[in-house]
Structure formats: C-alpha cells, structure tokens
Write a structure and sequence with these properties.
Layout lengths: L7 H32 L3 H27 L4 H18 L6 H29 L3 H30 L5 H19 L15 H13 L2 H31 L4 H45 L9 H19 L2 H7 L6 H30 L1 H22 L7 E6 L2 E3 L22 E3 L2 E6 L17
Antiparallel strand pairs: 1-4, 2-3
Helix pairs in contact: 1-2, 1-4, 1-5, 1-6, 2-4, 2-7, 2-12, 3-4, 3-6, 4-12, 5-9, 7-12, 8-9, 8-10, 8-12, 8-13, 9-10, 9-13, 12-13
Length: 457
C-alpha cells in the first residue's frame, strides 16, 4: 500500500489531503468550544444546526461545483478553494454572534463540497494503474481514520498551551500548506468534452450517469446502509458511553477509537480482499456486517462487547466505503469523472441528511435499544436494495447494439467519432449508423441506457 507514495504527484496530493484533514479535525474541536463560548447551555443546538448546514451545503453545492470544475484548470480550482477555506477558518476566532458561525460554516462547507469531489476525481487521472488506485483508496481511508483518532489528542495538547482560537489558526495554516502542495504538482490535462454543454446539463450530468448505472445504484443503496449505521456511531456514541455505561469523556474516546481501529484494519487488508473477491462481494459483505451487528446493541451488551460492536461497525463501513472510488472510476469517461464524483458526494450525504436526525430523534424519544433496531432495519433495506439493483454479473466490457442515431453534442474525440470531426460547441447534428460492438461500457451520449447483460454459457 505504501508503495503508491513513490509516485511524486500523488505523494504531494496525499500530503495535502493529510494536512487538510488534520486542520479540519482541529476546527471540529475548536468549533464545539466556540459554540459553548457563544451559546453556553445551547451549544448543542448551535452545533446541530451547523451540522445540518454542512449537509445542506454538501447536497446542494457539490453538483453545481462539479459543473463549474470543468470550466477552469483544476489545479487553480483546488488551490483557490484551499485559500478560501483558509480565509474562512481564520475569520472564526473573531466572530461574536451565533449567526456569524452559521454563515462561515456554510461557506466553508460549500467550498469543501466543491473541493472534495474534484480532488477525488483527480486521483484516478494521476494513478492510471488500478492496483495503485486501489492502494490509494486504502491509504486515504487510513488517513481519515487516523485523523479521527489523533486530531482530538493533538487539539488537547495544543489547548494546554493556548486558547482554542489558535486551533482555527492551525487549520488555516494547514489549508495554506495544502494549497502550496497542490500548486507544486503538474496535474494531467483533462478532456474538455463537456465544456460546451448547457450549464443545467453539466449540473445534472453526474446524477444522470450515476442513476443509470446499475453498480452505482447499488452503491447508493449501500450508502443508505452506511448512513443508518454511521449515524448511530456519530450521534449516539456519547450517549452510549456516558449514559448507558456511566463512563466519562475518556470512554467516549475509547468507543470512537474502537470504531476507527475496525475501519483501519479493513483498509489495510482491503487490497488483498479485492484481489480475491472483487468490489461487489466486499461491499455487500460490509453491508451484511452492518445489518447483522447493529441489532446486537439492543441486547444490553456489557462494556467490552460494546467496544467490539463499535469495531465491527467500523469494519463494515470501511468495507462499503473504501472501494467506492473503484466503481466511480469504472463508470465514467475521464471528462465525466468530476461530475460523477460530485453526484456521489451529494447523494451519499443526502442519505446522512436523513439518518442524522433520525438517530438523534429516535434515541431521545424511544431510547437506544429501539434506535439500534430501527437503524438496523434501515441498513437491511439498503442491503436488500443493493442486491436487487446491482447484478452479480457486472462486467466492465460489454457487447451491445447501437441503433441508427442522429443527435448533437459538444466536441467529441471518442471511438464513435474517430476519423471525422463531428459536433462542436454549437451542437452540429450528425448521424451514427447502426452497429454492434464491444468495449468498456459507461453511460454517455451514445450509451444512454444500460444494456441487458447475460453471462456466457
């Protein structure tokens, strides 16, 4: 897995990601302290509202940002977003009103909603080899999990020497360093085939490809399973550790650490797992783990069993989430990847937008035992839906039939136009004769419907 860091461009991008994650972790801690400083006993309400604004920004901004990403050089786009995020977090120490927190958090998360899918869509262009890309996905998962474990520790150490306002400064510096690292690399040139499309078409193109691709409909269903289980961890860990087990803040940290360890173990083993079983089997196994272990939380487990349960949830979620980049890479042309990654970002966070309040409201109203069972049902429904919409036989290369077609689109240089210049930004109509051929199949202008696929006997 570590061998992928020998690629100099990816190494700098990965370091930029690590710095951004570390800085964001510091801000997460500082934001809670700032909310308490401004709102006192109502700090939970402030943080809950900020979390909701984060999800709204993610769901609403990502597709628009994906459409804009193709209009400017992506290195400039990513660096500009890092600089904007640095500016916003550096403003947070000076806020005096709660509404200012809401405004800055929303703007910050809007920039993140533009940055993250664009960054994710860049990695498969940098790492053309699928094995390298698989290792990069596992390394990225490890970075996320280590950030969740180490950022609170780092924040605690910094708070012994300075006020929480300096945590925002640390995050700002991290984003500036991230921008410098992105600026230091040369990113592969991108096919600008979508540049001539109408803006609304570019905004919706990622979702159109996503929802017409069976394996990605399966990914969306599994994303709902993940959000059902993950909302239990994120929303109710503190309730389980403090109220059910009568623990302290240290016990909350232990449960979150158990969850992170489970996720990291799977991330380390995942390249070998995918060599043996492939993404579909691994991801469905993760959904099954989540569905089977969540109900165990309603059985009145002791402390050690609770830690084991949290570790299993981390493992199941990592099995589902980590290989998702492989599915996205296989399901779109290079020029469509930013839009497709943005669609995944928005649609998966829409699942969290449903699951977060459900986990909080169910836990407060009916107790954790009932919440475990209801969210397990949500996870199970996601798993069943994935099994139904994601065929077991899911080849990349598909033989398919084209009917006689007359259409228009932006400039194209794919195999369907080789040898002739057809279609420009002014949408010149052109004709394709009927034919049957075989190639890696993705949804695009010439393949708007997924063909029926049967395994050869």
């Amino acid at each position: 897995m570590i061998s992928v860091l020998a690629h100099p461009t990816y190494r700098n991008l990965f370091l930029a990601q690590v710095l951004s994650l570390a800085g964001t972790g510091l801000t997460t801690v500082a934001l809670g302290l700032l909310a308490y400083d401004l709102a006192g006993a109502d700090a939970g309400l402030v943080l809950g509202t900020a979390l909701a604004l984060k999800m709204v920004a993610y769901v609403g901004v990502a597709p628009v940002a994906g459409a804009l990403a193709g209009r400017v050089p992506r290195r400039r786009f990513l660096v500009s977003l890092d600089l904007c995020r640095a500016l916003m977090v550096l403003c947070l120490p000076f806020v005096t009103e709660v509404w200012q927190v809401y405004l800055l958090v929303f703007l910050f998360q809007a920039c993140s909603a533009a940055f993250t899918p664009t960054f994710q869509a860049t990695i498969p262009d940098v790492l053309a080899d699928e094995t390298d890309y698989t290792n990069a996905l596992s390394l990225s998962r490890l970075a996320y999990d280590l950030e969740a474990l180490l950022s609170p520790v780092l924040a605690g150490l910094l708070l012994t020497a300075a006020s929480f306002h300096w945590l925002f400064v640390g995050n700002g510096l991290a984003f500036l360093a991230s921008a410098a690292l992105v600026m230091s690399v040369i990113l592969p040139s991108r096919n600008g085939g979508n540049a001539g499309r109408p803006f609304l078409d570019r905004v919706t193109r990622g979702a159109w490809i996503y929802l017409h691709t069976p394996r990605l409909r399966g990914l969306l269903a599994l994303s709902f399973a993940v959000s059902s289980a993950g909302s239990m961890v994120i929303v109710n860990t503190v309730v389980l550790a403090r109220q059910t087990f009568g623990g302290t803040d240290r016990d909350v940290a232990f449960f979150l650490a158990a969850y992170g360890v489970g996720s990291m173990v799977v991330a380390i083993l995942l390249p070998r797992i995918l060599d043996r079983v492939g993404p579909r089997s691994a991801m469905l196994a993760g959904g099954l783990v989540l569905t089977l272990v969540l109900p165990l939380g309603s059985l009145g487990l002791d402390y050690a069993a609770g830690l084991a349960l949290w570790a299993c949830l981390g493992a199941g979620m990592s099995l589902v989430q980590t290989p998702s980049g492989l599915l996205l890479r296989r399901s779109a042309h290079e020029e469509d990847r930013p839009a497709l990654f943005a669609a995944q970002f928005a649609l998966s966070h829409a699942c969290w937008l449903v699951a977060y309040p459900a986990a909080g409201w169910l836990g407060a109203t009916f107790g954790l035992e009932t919440t475990f069972l209801v969210l397990a049902c949500g996870s199970g429904l996601g798993l069943i839906a994935a099994l139904r919409v994601w065929p077991a036989f899911d080849p990349v290369v598909i033989e398919h039939q084209h009917d006689d077609l007359v259409h228009s689109h932006g400039e194209a240089h794919d195999a369907h136009h080789r040898g002739s210049v057809v279609g420009r930004s002014d949408d010149v109509p052109h004709r394709h004769a009927a034919l049957r051929h075989t190639h890696p199949f993705v949804i695009d202008d010439h393949h708007p419907v997924w063909p029926a696929v049967r395994r050869a006997r």
